[in-house]
Specification:
Shape: elongated
Strand content: 5-15%
Largest sheet: 5 strands, mixed
InterPro entries: Dynamin, Dynamin_GTPase, Dynamin_N, Dynamin_stalk, G_DYNAMIN_dom, P-loop_NTPase
Organism: Gigaspora margarita
Protein name: P-loop containing nucleoside triphosphate hydrolase protein
Helix content: 40-55%
CATH architecture of the domain at 317-343 and 407-555: Up-down Bundle
Strand order of the largest sheet: 3-2-4-1-5
Order of helices and strands: EEEHEEHEHEHEHHHHHEEEEHHHHHH
GO molecular function, one term: GTP binding
CATH topology of the domain at 317-343 and 407-555: Four Helix Bundle (Hemerythrin (Met), subunit A)
Distance between the termini: 70 Å
Number of strands: 12
Number of helices: 15
Domain Dynamin-type G: 1-269
């Protein structure tokens, strides 16, 4: 049972509610449901009966709670008719009034150790689990109700309080039934009250509540407090006990109010931060709300299309820090270049080192001519040996009948080697185009979904239009790639940059000559063909990858990056 006391200038009133925190299978609900049970109560004497009725409603979940609002507890065995004997759901009592202290209390069920019926033993761990769940909260104050009728060490609440609060900094002890203390044993409880035994930082209070007979006679609160005052003023040793401020319900009530105020003050910074966080979140959510629509559908459609076009343009031109799209596209262009360069051939010249044969590698990607030993980076490339080049030259000579003319290197041998490499160029370009197409489709469709989100029907139609347009752009780009690919393959090797071609070929040839001279060998026409092929492939590969990449931008509608 949860008791919420609220100081208010209004007249005294009470509202009983039911809070459902667990479902029928005892599983905790992520969002508890609190509903009012009956209307407001203006008579304090009627609160207890309504609270009992509310408890009755919780213990009978299969029946509508409204049926218990006017329940009459005539049957002494009424509790035996309940569907449940225990529930984790809560009866909430909210009391407001000018003389009501600001205080919140949760009255937990008594911890049971024994049951009359075997089938009721299941409630023993349930009650203990419920108590532990509430008192483990480090911000809560544990009010340990300890009966003076039994020894303090034998009371389960003391054990559970120590487990949850080992240092005793948030546990307040309340001694009850002081009239049941046996003669000669008062000093045990007085030592506890003085803090000499079972010490708690918040200390102990002692109260005397009405007996069962008095409660059955519906004793009023004022009368109960008078009886309590008379007891502590007349009975030894309480009438002479010096800690008067720790005796009686009124003093306990004042202490609890004081503790609550202190707890609220400690929690104010966190409360303020939570409020600010929620306020900021609310402003952010408000900022995400779409602007108010105008009365003209045509104007609204024009505005959304214009806004969508603006966002797409910002993405494709990197405006307003919109760089994510081009990062993805540039990654694909880099992958295209890497995949394309992996098709290049490397040429091997057989040499010897300390009497053992080895191959020197010549790679057209080297910025400077440099002989290198074979390594892992070129193992997967097409490797063309000096012997293979010589055989290609011989075959060309046979076809062209040039074998009888000294120093004549057949041009067709170099062309054959170049075209054998160019036949592989189409696949990397198509792979890159497909990847770029998917990136553009995703980016544009995301923009459409964001811009036209208020009109799902428009989203589908706009996406269809965009996909149709991008498909057409893709077809245009494929035509350009095919044109470039066929032009490179079906025409003779060609470049207007003859000077650069001559310089690169000379660099390769000089490097090849140095290698064979170190082996005491004379340069051959085979090295001439190798140098020519490497020089031309270096120029044509860069030309092809650049033109194809430009085709991606132009044929697919991508603007040039500023």
């Amino acid at each position: 049972m949860e008791l919420r006391l609220i100081e208010s200038p209004e007249t005294w009133s009470c509202q009983v509610s039911l809070r459902k925190e667990y479902d029928e299978n005892e599983k905790h609900l992520s969002n508890p449901i609190e509903t009012k049970f009956g209307g407001p109560i203006d008579d304090p004497d009627k609160v207890e009966l309504m609270a009992r009725r509310a408890q009755k409603a919780l213990l009978n979940p299969i029946t509508k709670s409204n049926e218990y609002i006017n329940w009459d507890f005539k049957d002494k065995d009424d509790s035996q008719l309940n569907n449940l004997k225990f529930t984790k759901n809560v009866v909430c009592i909210e009391i407001k009034g000018s003389d009501v202290p600001n205080l919140s209390l949760i009255d937990l069920p008594g911890i049971i150790r024994h049951t009359e019926k075997i089938e009721d033993k299941k409630f023993i761990p349930l009650t203990e689990e419920l108590v532990k769940e509430y008192i483990k909260n480090e911000k809560s104050i544990i009010i340990a109700t300890i009966s003076c009728k039994d020894e303090i060490d034998n009371q389960a609440v003391v054990t559970l309080a120590k487990e949850a609060d080992p240092l005793g900094v948030r546990t307040l002890g309340v001694l009850t039934k002081p009239e049941m203390i046996e003669k000669g044993t008062h000093n045990i409880w007085l030592r506890i009250m003085r803090g000499e035994a079972h010490q708690l930082e918040l200390g102990y209070y002692v109260v005397k509540n009405p007996t069962k007979v008095q409660r059955a006679e519906n004793i009023k609160s004022e009368e109960a407090r008078l009886i309590e005052n008379e007891f502590f003023e007349q009975e030894e040793p309480w009438n002479s006990f010096y800690l008067r401020e720790r005796i009686g319900v009124k003093n306990l009530q004042n202490k609890l109010s004081e503790l609550l105020i202190e707890a609220i003050k400690r929690g104010l910074p966190d409360i303020r931060k939570n409020v600010e966080d929620k306020l900021n979140k609310t402003f952010q959510d408000l900022g995400k709300l779409p602007i108010q629509l105008s009365d003209s559908p045509r104007i609204e459609l024009f505005r959304m299309v214009k806004n969508c076009s603006k966002i797409i343009k910002e993405k494709t031109t990197c405006s307003n820090d919109q760089t994510e799209l081009w990062k993805l596209l540039n990654d694909q262009f880099a992958q295209f270049k890497e995949e394309f360069c992996a098709l290049r051939p490397v040429f091997l010249i057989r040499t010897s080192f300390i009497g053992r044969p080895r191959d020197e590698t010549f790679d057209i990607l080297e910025d400077f001519i440099e002989n290198r030993k074979n390594n892992a980076s070129t193992d997967r490339l097409q490797q063309i040996t000096e012997v293979q080049v010589t055989e290609i030259i011989r075959n060309s000579c046979r076809r062209l009948l040039t074998g009888s003319i000294p120093d004549l290197i057949p041009y067709s041998a170099a062309r054959t080697m170049i075209q054998e490499n160019q036949v592989k160029w189409e696949k990397p370009a198509m792979n890159c185009l497909n990847a770029v197409y998917e990136i553009m489709i995703k980016s544009v469709c995301e923009t459409i979904e964001t811009t036209f989100s208020r009109f799902p029907g428009l989203v589908g139609r706009m996406e269809y239009k965009v996909r149709t347009w991008l498909e057409e752009c893709k077809k245009q780009t494929i035509d350009q790639i095919n044109f470039m690919y066929k032009m490179e393959r079906t025409t003779y090797p060609f470049t207007l940059d003859k000077h650069r071609m001559t310089v690169i070929k000379k660099e390769y040839l000089n490097s090849l000559h140095r290698t064979v001279r170190n082996e005491n060998r004379n340069p051959t026409e085979t090295l001439e063909v190798m140098a020519l092929v490497m020089a031309y492939l270096k120029i044509s590969i860069k030309r092809y990858t650049d033109v194809v990449s430009i085709g991606f931008r132009k044929g697919s509608g991508y603007p040039r990056v500023p």
